[in-house]
Design brief:
The complex is a heterodimer of chains A (418) and B (443). Chain A contains 19 helices and no strands. Chain A has 418 residues and is mainly alpha-helical. The N terminus of chain A is likely disordered. Chain A has a single domain, classed as Amino acid/polyamine transporter I, CATH 1.20.1740.10. Chain B starts with 10 loop residues before the first strand and ends with a helix. Chain B is elongated, with a radius of gyration of 30 Å. Chain B has three domains: 215 residues, no CATH class; 99 residues, MgtE N-terminal domain-like (MgtE N-terminal fold); 111 residues, CBS-domain, CATH 3.10.580. The chains are: A mainly alpha (418), B alpha+beta (443).
Chain lengths: 418, 443
């Protein structure tokens, strides 16, 4: 009896690589999403207005991001459930409902920011937002509900590599590296004024968002990664977050070196494109426009989709793009209204988009410590995590990070509401 | 004292009973209601004990010791025995006819988990509606001196109740549209159709086992949908309790991505049994997705040497070609037989063969020399010889290395339900049926 199967012999290295690539993914995708419209705007503005001064903040932000995303990914792998499912099962319907209600509001604001990004990108090419936004809203809707979204996702991820040009641009500019390093290693905490607070919260709020915690966990669950591959998933998260850190770092360097000394205040996307001029010359705004459009469109598709999923999971409603409207009415209603409202808001004449963005950011900033507290609690529950609960060190660092976020949030809210 | 004298409603809701204060006859407060222990062996389970919480510790008190029960307070006997425990020890009856939980060791004692912990806010399988739902609330009914569980509530009304917004929303709806269905109806699931899935830890500590009698009645396609909707733990739990035949049928219906992970969780012996029960083409597709070591372990555990060899052969073909798609479980005969011989053979072999729609005729070196549809066979008289009635000119067949898209085009062009697959030398290897192609076209 022959037990050996006679199949095509694949080299062990390629087998290992394929396995690795099939597990690697959720973290990289999620971190790519971090450089969305809001992210690029915030990083550009931070660099343009404060120079290298606040760049040190990226280090603790990235550490926090790695810690929190690792927890969510681990939770997804061990429990096989989404974050909203676990919150519902552990904390009951009422807490889940109110948490998700506010999260939905924050995400509506975030979706609006993505459409604002699409509008800005369109305006770089001279297209009116009254044309680009409605067309893109319809495209997003069709893309997610009527086509095979997964296959398109890869194109977006590829499109995100446009932001790698910031790295090239950064080296061409050749900033004073010693100055940059000093600013990161020895942060000048005394120079922080109340004016810096919104920027600092913005940096935090665009880098660590509540919805991404839900997104990465669902992505991991959907991939069906087993606990054997926990380590691969950690590498994935760390690689993704580090990539995000590098790109963000260079966006800030470029803006800090080219825009900050000239004293120009960044008003719109066109101004921010100056940072790419050393690399692309007069084509810099085109390059920036394509990158911004890609990132905004990508996030405008994924964000409402992720939000519809977690709302329906938590509330116990049917969900899934492969269902019919009759089978999953709530799911399609939430998804469609988010795109419609998010898109329409950017078109209201005279609306102060910037103010809405700030309020969204505040809501994000308020919600993220709460969501992280849920995550820490769930990650310490042996009923859910079995032997994979948090270590005391992980808990200690996480709690300190949450405390820091609260400390940073409170005065900002105070100042911006005043 | 009449136990329910101040309780006018016939039905009670789980969420409304949480936090009711418990006193003894002297008026001394013992704690607050936290959960219920019910007799999972009954179709409409009666409440056996109430779990209450005092200073963060959990106790239970037997239902018999309760003198008075209302939404305001519960009074129990002064000498009532209460024990500190998270679970409830239950002696099982010798024979259990149960709707949701049962035990392999009947007659012995098991530790029951509380009701809320395994049902409230959790996903359950509604075996009547054939879907996975999340429970918002649980309905009890007053039955004499007892309280019995009757329904799991999953609708909007129970949702609003959990948010403590029942009164204002009711008022609002009443004033807007007094006839609204919302006020009288809620989506509930009769308890006998509720199939709970205790979580990993409860499963481990109390050794409860699910009976799958109610699930076994479901169509494999429905079962597959349910598995897809569950989380990985619930999925594995239900799947590993299916018998190999049902497991095989269900597995063929499940989403491709899930198939391998479900089979991966089974030990090689059980996995081999499941594989044996599947169509060989589906089995080969599935094994193609798995690790080599695991596949070898499964294949070596297959008892039927014929199936074992067929699967190994299929595994050698590329998934996207006719060879990877075909099944080798075909009905092939020699040309010398008569119609009655063939009918007898059909009766004999119906379990091993995937389809009788077309009958394939081979010569002694196993080359395809003719085809005959079942329909044609039936219209001839009993003594007709196959070689006289078979179609031997212009035989429609495809080579084993044809791409599946070409197979689809070919079958569409000639309106074929099944198509024979042959080697370059015209040796009959297998056939592809239209449903194998449809799967590909739709995914």
């Amino acid at each position: 009896m022959k037990n050996e199967t006679k199949r095509k012999i694949v080299s062990p290295l390629i087998m290992k690589l394929t396995l690795f690539l099939s597990i690697v993914g959720p973290g990289l995708v999620t971190s790519n999403l971090d450089n969305d419209a809001g992210g690029i705007a915030t990083y550009s503005m931070a660099g343009a207005q404060t120079g290298y001064r606040l760049m040190w903040l990226l280090i603790p932000v990235t550490i926090a991001l790695i810690m929190f995303q690792e927890m969510s990914a681990r939770m997804g792998i061990v429990s096989g459930k989404g974050l909203a499912d676990l919150i519902r099962e552990k904390f009951g319907l009422r807490i889940t409902f109110y948490s998700l209600f506010f999260l939905l509001f924050a995400d509506l604001g975030n979706t609006m920011a993505e459409f604002a990004g699409i509008a800005s990108a369109g305006e770089i090419f001279g297209a009116s937002r009254y044309i680009t936004v409605p067309i893109c809203a319809i495209l997003v809707w069709l893309l997610v509900l009527k086509s095979d979204y997964k296959s398109v996702e890869r194109i977006f991820i590829l499109g995100c590599s446009i932001f790698l040009t910031y790295i090239v641009s950064g080296f061409i500019i050749g900033p004073n590296w010693i100055e940059v390093t000093t600013a990161i290693i020895k942060p000048d905490l005394h120079s922080i004024t109340s004016k810096d607070l919104p920027i600092m919260v913005g940096l935090l709020g665009t880098s660590i968002t509540p919805w991404m915690q839900f997104y990465i966990q669902s992505a991991v669950v959907e991939k069906g990664i087993s606990t054997k591959h926990l380590w691969h998933s950690k590498v994935d998260v760390i690689a993704g977050c580090s990539l995000m850190l590098i790109v963000t770092f260079f966006i800030m360097i470029c803006c800090a070196t080219t825009i900050f000394p000239s004293g120009i205040v960044v008003h719109d996307a066109k101004d921010a494109a100056i940072a790419l001029e050393p690399l692309a010359g007069k084509y810099s705004s085109i390059l920036f426009g394509i990158g911004l459009f890609n990132a905004s469109f990508f996030a405008a598709a994924i964000l409402p989709l992720a939000a519809s999923y977690y709302i329906c999971q938590g509330m116990g409603w049917e969900s899934g793009v492969d269902r019919t409207f009759k089978e999953a009415p709530h799911f399609f209603t939430v998804f469609t209204s988010m795109i419609t409202i998010g898109g329409a808001m950017t078109l209201i004449p005279g609306i102060d988009l910037f103010k809405i963005l700030i309020y969204t950011q505040i809501l994000n900033g308020l919600l993220i410590p709460i969501v992280v507290l849920y995550i820490i609690n769930l990650c310490n529950d042996p009923d859910i995590m079995g032997e994979y609960t948090n270590s005391p060190t992980q808990n200690f660092i996480s709690y300190i990070l949450v405390a820091l976020m609260f400390i940073l949030n409170l005065p900002t809210i105070y100042y911006s509401l005043r | 004292m009449e136990i329910f004298k101040d309780l006018n409603d016939i039905t009670l809701h789980f969420s409304k009973t949480l936090g009711i204060k418990i006193f003894n006859e002297d008026g001394q407060k013992l704690g607050r209601v936290n959960d219920f222990f019910i007799d999972y062996e009954e179709i409409y389970p009666s409440v056996l004990a109430i779990q209450y919480k005092r200073n963060g510790f959990l106790f239970y008190i037997l239902w018999e010791e309760i003198l008075y029960f209302s939404y305001k307070k519960i009074v129990i006997k002064n000498d009532a025995f209460s024990r500190r425990s998270r679970t409830f020890p239950k002696t099982l009856r010798p024979k259990s006819v149960t709707s949701i939980l049962a035990n392999q060791f009947t007659g012995s004692t098991v530790e029951y988990p509380p009701l809320g912990q395994i049902v409230l806010d959790k996903q359950i399988v509604d075996t009547h509606g054939k879907k996975v739902v999340r429970v918002n609330d649980i309905q009890f009914i007053k039955a004499g001196k007892e309280l019995r569980v009757t329904h799991a509530e999953v609708g909007l009304r129970s949702f609003v109740r959990r948010l403590n917004l029942e009164k204002p929303i009711d008022f609002l709806i009443k004033s807007l549209s007094p006839q609204s269905k919302y006020l009288t109806n809620d989506t509930t699931i009769n308890w006998k159709y509720v199939h709970a899935i205790p979580n990993r830890n409860i499963q481990k500590s109390v050794r409860l086992n699910l009976t799958n009698e109610d699930l076994k009645q479901l169509h494999p396609a429905d079962l597959a949908d349910i598995l897809e909707d569950l989380d990985s733990h619930g999925r594995e739990m239900i799947f590993s309790n299916l018998d190999p035949k049902l497991a095989a049928e269900t597995l063929s219906e499940v989403d491709e991505d899930l198939q391998a992970s479900l089979l991966n969780n089974e030990n090689p012996e059980k996995a081999a049994e499941i594989i044996e029960n599947m169509d060989t083409d589906d089995a080969a597709d599935l094994l193609n997705e798995m690790d080599d070591d695991k596949v070898d372990a499964i294949i070596s555990n297959i008892d039927d040497v014929e199936i074992q060899e067929e699967i190994q052969e299929l595994l050698e073909h590329d998934e996207d070609t006719a060879g990877g798609l075909m099944t080798s479980e075909i009905f092939e005969i020699t040309a010398e037989l008569s119609k009655s011989d063939v009918l007898a053979l059909i009766q004999q072999k119906h379990e091993e063969v995937a389809s009788f729609h077309d009958i394939y005729i081979v010569d002694e070196s196993h080359n395809l020399i003719g085809t005959l549809s079942l329909q044609e066979l039936l219209i001839h008289n009993e003594n007709a010889l196959i070689k006289d009635i078979m179609n031997d000119s212009d035989i429609k067949s495809l080579s084993v290395d044809t791409h599946w898209k070409e197979v689809a085009t070919y079958m569409n062009k000639y309106n074929m339900i099944t198509v024979p697959i042959v080697s370059r030398e015209n040796e009959l290897l297998g056939m592809i049926s239209v449903d194998d192609i449809l799967d590909r076209l739709l995914s």
